[in-house]
Amino acid sequence: MDRIVRQIHPEKSELEGTAERPLSEFLTQPNIVLLGDPGAGKSYAFRELAAAGGGRYLTARAFLTLPVRNTGGILFIDGLDERRGGRGDRDTVDALAAKLKLHGVYPDLDRSAGGDKPYSAQHVPAGFGIMFGAGTLSGLLGIGSGAVKVLAMDQAMRLPFKVSTTTSNFMIGVTAAASAGIYLYRGYIDPAMAMPVMLGVLGGSMIGSQLLVRARVATLKIIFGVVIVALGVEMIFNGVTGRI
Q1: Which residue among 78, 105, 120 closes a domain?
Q2: Do 96 and 161 belong together in one domain?
Q3: Burial of 151 (0-12, 13-18, 19+ CB in 10 A)
Q4: Which SS3 state, helix, strand or coil, does residue 57 take?
Q5: How confident is the model at residue 160 (pLDDT cuts 50, 70, 90)?
Q6: Exposed/middle/buried for residue 160 (C-beta within 10 Å: 0-12, 13-18, 19+)
């Protein structure tokens, strides 16, 4: 749906015609700034125009932190995530995340505009602190602590959920290996039992990675929540009954 917008600068005289025109008619200009009240539909209009005209839609955060390749199409920059100045807020772009280059692009099949979706991490110190706790849990409880890492990246660092789950899966091997070597040295691991379990986990992981690309984020979050609740109930039950 093509939105009707009003040109406010430069002002149009009566001889030049009406200042209200469809937004698509302004796309011939070198650059335009679209203003409007919150909820007026600016972001939606940008996504629709990007999808219809083969352009690229980016948030202001992604534009400032990610390298933007010139594809010849129109670039739509959404400043929805900007903050008002003069209130003591931190910069919208996390300086530490930019310095460590904690940003990237991932394919998002759910987007109406299609293509790759850029992202950038936020609140890096908080994420690092939660990761430290996740590593401690891995050593104490003998778990990969992947659930804690997903929560840290999704909620604290504001990474896309699919990026959080796949990054956590990659990190599990690192944190688990740190404690597995100690357990193996002390005789806490039975290799004969670990091998068939590892084969089953490997097969399931390969299937899950294929389904992840096509799955909707809302569905993944529901499954994740159910698994977290089930794990919590099991651990509480084992603790109360003395099985741990």
Answers
A1: 120
A2: no
A3: middle
A4: strand
A5: confident
A6: middle
For the chain, what is the domain count?
2
Does a cis peptide bond (omega within 30 degrees of 0) precede residue 67?
no
Question: Do residues 32 and 133 share a domain?
Answer: no
| Token pair listed for 134 | 């996740």
Distance CA 24, CA 4 (A): 9
Q: How far, in Å, CA of 62 to CA of 49, rounded?
A: 19
**Final residue in a domain of this structure, among 66, 93, 120:** 120
pLDDT tens digits for range 174-212: 767 777 778 888 888 888 888 888 888 888 888 888 888
- What residue numbers bound the domain in which 172 lies? 124-241
Q: What is the mean pLDDT of the chain?
A: 76
| Among 160, 105, 155, residue whose Cα is nearest residue 131 | 155
CA atoms within 13 A on the CB side of 106: 17
- C-alpha closest to that of 67 among 92, 116, 103: 103
- Is 80 exceeded by the pLDDT of residue 92? no
For 114, phi then psi, to 5°, come to: 70, 175
Q: What does the alpha-carbon distance between residue 49 and residue 158 come to, in Å, rounded to a whole number?
A: 26
Q: How far apart are CA 138 and CA 233, in angstroms?
A: 18
